[in-house]
């Protein structure tokens, strides 16, 4: 079995101006600048990426966006392309976040096109999957997640699959303070790895699977202790540089 390198990614969502991002970067780097045991990623709003590129250049912190277009370029008002993200030093991009699926009506077909485009361009997609409360209570969580994976990763070669990062984010745990128990989260991440093995057994072994949903400095160690959880996608608790640095420290303790 491969030892997978942990990834701790912050998703700032629609928070922080470029000025706020700059102060964050300074305080954050002071605390995490020496971390070598994990990949640290900040997924910032488009408008903050350029200043983060300048502040974090040659540091251990990687940059990511929260969405992108499936098109290379063209008449797509309001969209941002993979090349534009690379221009501001992004190496990761969150795709298929439940907030985009629910609020912006993104479908699995749209997400699959974005995943494919990100990989063609050399960006690492962080593909988010997860069930809502009704689906969990109906015992459908695993089927829902398996279907999302099947549709969103359709048609990828095994080599391409190896570049994908999966984030399991149960919708009922996002921003609610209700984290999935480490056991439930761990079981789902194992089920995800099992489902990925059907598409590519070698890829399934190397793909990092992150958990997201009310991850905090207090619960990260338990989550990371599960064999199939390789890291976290952190919303609210990534907004404060001191708190996020403490969370990262706890994640790497075990
Ligand atoms: P919270 O950590 O605020 O629950 O958000 C999780 C999330 O959606 C990360 O993408």
Radius of gyration, Cα only, in angstroms? 17 Å
Strand arrangement in the largest pleated sheet: 1-2-3-4-5-6-7-8
Ions, cofactors and other bound molecules: 1,3-dihydroxyacetonephosphate
**What's the overall average pLDDT, rounded?**
96
Number of strands: 8
Strand portion: 15-25%
CATH topology: TIM Barrel
Structural class: alpha/beta
Account of the 3D structure:
With 254 residues, the chain is of the alpha/beta class. It has a single domain (7-251), classed as Aldolase class I (TIM Barrel, Alpha-Beta Barrel). The protein is 43% helix and 15% strand. It has helices at residues 18-32, 49-56, 82-87, 98-103, 108-121, 133-137, 141-152, 158-161, 182-199, 201-206, 220-224, 241-251; strands at residues 7-11, 39-43, 61-65, 90-95, 124-129, 165-168, 209-212, 231-234. Strands 1-2-3-4-5-6-7-8 form an 8-stranded parallel β-barrel, surrounded by 5 helices. Helix 1 (18-32) runs parallel beside helix 2 and helix 7 runs parallel beside helix 9 (182-199). The longest helix has 18 residues, at 182-199. The chain is globular and about 45 Å long. The model has no long low-confidence stretch (mean pLDDT 96). Residues 11, 97, 169, 174-175, 212-215, 233-237 line the site of 1,3-dihydroxyacetonephosphate (13P).
């Amino acid at each position: 079995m491969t030892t997978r390198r942990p990834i701790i990614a912050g998703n700032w969502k629609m928070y922080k101006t470029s000025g706020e991002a700059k102060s964050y970067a300074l305080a954050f780097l002071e605390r995490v600048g020496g971390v070598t045991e994990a990949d640290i990623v900040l997924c910032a709003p488009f408008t903050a990426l350029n200043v983060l590129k300048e502040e974090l250049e040659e540091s251990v912190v990687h940059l990511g966006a929260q969405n992108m277009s499936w098109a290379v370029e063209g008449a797509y008002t309001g969209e941002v392309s993979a090349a534009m993200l690379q221009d501001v030093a992004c190496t990761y991009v969150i795709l298929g976040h439940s907030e985009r699926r629910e609020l912006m009506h993104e479908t699995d077909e749209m997400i699959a096109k974005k995943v494919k485009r990100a990989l063609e361009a050399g960006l690492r997609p962080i593909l988010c999957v997860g069930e809502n409360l009704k689906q969990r209570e109906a015992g459908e969580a695993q089927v829902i997640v398996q279907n999302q994976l099947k549709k969103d990763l359709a048609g990828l070669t095994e080599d391409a699959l190896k570049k994908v990062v999966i984030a399991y984010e149960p919708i009922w745990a996002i921003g609610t303070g209700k984290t999935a128990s480490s056991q439930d989260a761990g079981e789902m991440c194992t089920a995800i790895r099992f489902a990925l093995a059907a598409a590519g057994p070698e890829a399934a072994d190397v793909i990092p699977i992150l958990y997201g949903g009310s991850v905090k400095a207090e619960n990260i160690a338990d989550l990371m202790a599960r064999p199939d959880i390789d890291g976290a996608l952190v919303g609210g608790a990534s907004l404060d540089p001191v708190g996020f640095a403490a969370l990262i420290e706890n994640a790497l303790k075990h």
